[in-house]
Amino acid sequence: MSSKETVFFTGGAGFIGLHVVPMLLEKDYKVRIFDNMFRGDREAVAALGDDVELIDQDVRYGGSVHAAMKGCSKVIHAAAVSINKSQADPHESMDINMIGNHNVFAAAAEHGVDRLVYCSSASVYGDPERLPMHEDDKLLPITPYCIAKRAGEDLLAYYQRRANLSWVALRFFNVYGPGQKTTAYYTSVINHFVNRIKNGEPPVIDGKGEQSMDFIHVHDIARSVVLALESEQANVPVNVGTGIDTSIADLARILIDAVGADVEPQFNPRDVLVGRRAADTTRAKEVLGFEPTIDVRTGMTELIRGQ
């Protein structure tokens, strides 16, 4: 029998998971990935080695989750349907995100795991009333995805009270990096800009480009997950961002510099709802000992030049 601890990782074959798993292996964990492989990368999982097991199943089936979690001491729950898809098909979104959350949390409570790390989202805030966004701010989730993420945090608190489940909910801001899917709104913006810039065409920005996001590199996201798995403090939501809001206009200029093109952004004058995002990172530092290591200019430049 191996003395290594096993981490149960839902959605572990996806974009973020494939950055987290190697870090877990470095820390001498075994990993049991539980993923329906709808967006998972089977070849990448196979290349991770003998200490990684893949269970091709769906979090909607509570019996499967419960059986597969047996023998695991820690849980990372990342399986979810994306924001865009949740609006296109709210029924499927509720099924996977809400029922899936409950199946994983209930199983973790019953198995008495040491720690559950939940991949939540900064989208639970909705349109923030102030910047930077703090964990104790009002939550106004807008889409079925965001609503399920918020409900997941409430469910964790329930199982903490009922079964002493130890948890950390990580509210990820705008994640980017190698291996990202092009379907998320902001990654499609990045790809659209880069394609135009590489063709010698200017990126076209609606309004003045004042809309902003807090772009956090997937390497730092992965670090935060491992830190949350082992942190002494628990039972709180934690923002994972850089604390810096990068406007769409600034992003376009970073990408132009990364490609090395001689173009200027074009602005399409129209009324745009200016949304802004920036994380208050105080709690991440206090609870997890986490600070981001990759700034947006460095991360985006490496991403573009590595393509």
TrEMBL record:
Coiled coil (UniProt feature): none
Keywords: Membrane, Transmembrane, Transmembrane helix
Ranges that cross the membrane: 6-25
Protein's UniProt keywords contain Transmembrane helix: yes
Record's protein name: NAD-dependent epimerase/dehydratase family protein
Domain NAD-dependent epimerase/dehydratase: 9-241
Top-level taxon: Bacteria
Signal sequence coordinates: none
